[in-house]
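Incident review: delayed structure delivery

Summary: a single-chain prediction request sat in the queue longer than the usual turnaround. Root cause was a stuck worker, restarted by the on-call engineer. No data loss occurred. The affected request and its eventual output are reproduced below so the record is complete for anyone auditing the incident later.

Affected input:
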Amino acid sequence: MKVIRGIAAAMAVVLAGSAARAADAVRLSVGPDLAKDSAALPRIAAPSTAATARINAALARLDRSWAGYVRDCLAGGKDNEASRRVEIAMRGPRYLAVLARDSEDCGGAHPDYSLTALTYDLQTGRPADWGRLLGPRLASSVGADSAIDGATIGLVSSPELRRLYVATLKARGGEPRDWWKDCDDVLADDSLQFSVWPDAKAGGLMLAPQLVHAVQACGEEVAISAPTLRSFGASPDLVAVLSGAR
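Output delivered after worker restart:
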């Protein structure tokens, strides 16, 4: 009987933790597509705080920017195309993470692609401070680039982050040998910048290198686990969220 009671108590703790995390998840709504093949970014349904209202306002500005870009692109030629695919990587606790994967062929020298990783702090309504969250070993430099439509893409870099990315990618295996031959030099640059975002399904922090069009095929996305982030001095709050802890 003591064993059964112990199992029941343990299950109650697990269920309580799951219920708490579910309660911390924000409810999202998604409006109609901005244009053909261009999904809208989600919104926090019934925002009840200044922070959630601030996030919705930021998402609305980004939607307006992409809608305007698509409108101009399509007006520039009958064969022009632009599309956006949206993914929700995390909706709490603490962070909302949304990905916009944009593609365009608007009459330039070649088609283009950009990934915009948006991570908002649900307590403040502001973009995640990756320099603070990752610490100096993994984010010795914090910068930015521009997405296809001119929106800002936040990026981080450090020699340690690049080495961790390559080690994780190689440990994952399954890559053809000729892939490494073509990409080794591309991924050897310690100034390589990364988009980062928390991913609830992966239970870790995703890394995607920012690469020019000619070598974008080298830009595999990998997940860095919470224990690994802890060992590199990442914020305990971030580690706790990624571990599923409170």
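Verification: The chain has one domain: 25-243.
Action items: add queue-age alerting; document worker restart procedure.
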